[in-house]
Design goal:
Mean pLDDT: 95
Radius of gyration: 14 Å
Largest sheet: 5 strands, antiparallel
Bound molecules: manganese (II) ion
Number of strands: 10
Strand content: 35-45%
């Protein structure tokens, strides 16, 4: 067993930006690709002003912890719910969800998955991409 306790300095970690969604960028905080960890993973997603993580679902359940900004949580059937700093969202297995930045500063939240790493989560988008 590795019993080493790890501290990661969020502000020192680089942002990761994908090509497909220029309004989103991420930091991997606890993730088996970067830390000696398993079974739990956590990262930060930043949604640019006017941007959104579209409606999607995935097998693993998920928790969001909103850090800053003003968001609109997207749910199935077009339902929405405002969220802001310190709000916590629980998403059950395969629950449809997304989040839109409806404020005038970046929206930041932590995601937590019961997986070794973010890469093992298969995102299935409602809009079919
Ligand atoms: Mn999700």
């Amino acid at each position: 067993m590795n019993e080493t306790v790890v501290v990661r300095q969020t502000n020192q970690l680089p942002w990761n930006q994908g090509d497909e969604r220029p309004d989103l960028r991420a930091k991997f905080l606890v993730d088996s690709t970067e830390t000696n960890s398993h079974g739990l993973s956590c990262g930060i997603l930043e949604v640019a002003v006017g941007g959104e993580l579209p409606l999607h679902h995935h097998g693993p359940q998920e928790i969001y912890v909103i850090r800053s900004g003003k968001g609109l949580l997207l749910k199935s059937d077009g339902e929405t719910q405002p969220v802001g700093a310190d709000d916590v969202v629980y998403v059950p297995e395969n629950g449809q969800h997304g989040i839109r930045n409806v404020g005038d500063v970046p929206l930041e939240f932590l995601w937590i998955f019961p997986t070794d790493c973010w890469q093992e989560v298969e995102y299935l988008y409602a809009e079919g991409d």
